[in-house]
Structures are given as structure tokens and as C-alpha cells.
Write a structure and sequence with these properties.
By secondary structure, the chain is an all-alpha fold. The chain has one helix spanning 2-28.
Length: 29
């Protein structure tokens, strides 16, 4: 159970990182 919650936390961090990076990526392309 603990590892499952840890995985969800990692996914949430990836989504936050993607939201932060996406404007820069779109501007470059």
C-alpha cells in the first residue's frame, strides 16, 4: 500500500513537471 501511494505521488509530480515544462516545449517547436 505504501509503495502504491508513493507511485501516485510520483505520477502527480510528473504531471506538475509536465505542466511546468509544456509552454517552453511548445514555444520551441
Amino acid at each position: 500500500m505504501l509503495s502504491y501511494l508513493h507511485t501516485l505521488d510520483n505520477i502527480a509530480n510528473l504531471w506538475k513537471l509536465a505542466d511546468y515544462v509544456s509552454p517552453f516545449v511548445q514555444r520551441d517547436s
